[in-house]
Fold this protein.
Amino acid sequence: MPTAVSYLSAVQHADTRARSHDNSSVASTPSLSPSPSITASSEDNALSEDDENNCLVYPLKPPISEQVFTTAHSEFGHCANEAYRCVPKHDYTKPFEEKPIEEPPYYIFLTTHISLFILRLLGHMRDFFGKRFAKSYFAHLMHQNGYAPLNTNHDSFYTRWLRGRMTDCLCQPVTGVPGRTIVILDRHSTDNNYTQICTGGKTRALNISSYNYLGFSQGHGGCSDAVKESIHQCGVASCGTRLESGSSELHISAEALVARFVGTGDALISSMGFATNSTFIPALVGNGSLIISDELNHASIRIGARQSGAHVRVFKHNDMSSLESLLREVISQGQPKTHRPWKKVLLIVEGVYSMEGTILNLPKILELKKIYKFYLYIDEAHSIGALGPHGRGVADYFNVSPSSIDVLMGTFSKSFGAAGGYIAGPKTLIDGLRLRGHLGPYAEAIAPPVLAQIIASMASIMGVALAPQPTNSKFSLSPVGSVVTPRNSEKELLGMVPASSLPTWMNLPPALADGSEAGVRIRRLAFNSRYLHAGLKKLGFIIYGHSSSPIVPLLLFNPGKLPTFVRMMRAYSPPIVVVVVSHPATPFETARVRLCPSASHTKEDIDTVLRACDEVGGILDLKHGSGERWGINMVCERAVELVHSV
């Protein structure tokens, strides 16, 4: 591996040559956004230990003189090989079919349930004897001075006896940028994980756990420069709600940009993605209406449905036969008792399901929509930015018109490296939600730095037209104009964003402004997602979800394997940070690790993850998948072939 000195020398030489050319020649190189040259993390992220030979900080191969990489390798990996790219779109020559869920051998289910039985038995025994012989440890579960306990024995049972045993694997404190790598704060416990003590040490690890799909969560680059400038121009907070004094030109610009990006007439942004569902769904439907929900919809959707007062029916996950059968039943029978027709029928689904990694069967749902005349609400929290050739979500992935979808919801915390959410649709609908939704009068408006990140990252995906685009429309997309912008055609709607739509002080670098860098990010994410998904299956693991999904769930089943998997991955060289999921997010018997590849990862990073999973999976007996199996070396050598075969 080259030393840091040789690497820095090569980068300096490449940077000198690049600066000697004009902007056009720089843009033609396989580079990232041309901001000040950076090769390592900032001082805030620097570790005390020597990182000279750390492959997480410096690439295995130094760049050649024709290659210019101006981002920190630890934040966004350097990868100029065009073979490691893939376009995320549906192939209509093949039918869209979700592969059946694989089941493990019976002994896996048997040992999992035995493990859970032992956990419950020992937990209840400890509670029973502890309340009598060790009252000081169970005082918070007992009546004291006439007060009932806030947390009952039943409510906190799994928190104490399951989660408490793996506290070191959860809520891991980190520092620095959650990019390709992440710096975790070292901890230890002296009381069996009841409390964690920070040792003061830090460890850099490969980050396969963050929702940083397109890698925009960077400490350096065009987007971060725009965020810094927004603080000088607009401050750090809005200090008001949207219906009072919290609306600024940045809010109006961001909403107009979102509407253009997703292809709708108007959009409304909020400061929290979870609250976008939980507060706007009650504003859409109420008593006398029907919500049809996928059984694995996110908790925010479930809470919003309950608060709405509408009748709720559930169909099997992504099962179109179950959905059509339910539609026939509820539409023919009408409301309970009275059998009157429903005031509204709203189908709520997700573009990509966060725990399963499955992709919505949108073409079939649109066929049913034409027949049964229901409204369609799609939560694109995990699909916007990550799916489609242009990163515009599930509609872009299937190449269908966004106008065929009534309500589009999404978040900015996954693909855009920001925070908050949006809801988009026709202008008349959005105007009503501005008044009826609880976020307008009660929630703090999004802060200007977050808005700057949203605008900069989204505009870089769309591309910025330097000259105003010709239009016959009497309105233009302008921060000081109307929020809605009538457009002549959907092609114009989904085109590049005019430069006049951005704040005058926001100057994106050429590679961001022309959309070329974001296009590379989208294709890198698609390659990494498919490679990780297909590679794990070839190694023999049971994997849920679609191969194009940026979420790759690897099934562990036995809850006792959750902390062991996390600790072994962290002890691997280089360390790898993963997220494990169990009850209540998933059933007890299908505990899993959720891997989230990013555009910031290189092909070598995915190789590292596959090798680590292969080693750990062999030790923990996790390889129970069916189909042809390959060795780890064959998987890594035939990665491109593997990606294009799925």
In short: The two ends are 33 Å apart (CA to CA). DSSP finds 21 helices and 16 strands in the chain. The first helix runs from residue 4 to 19. Residues 129 and 542 are 40 Å apart (CA to CA).
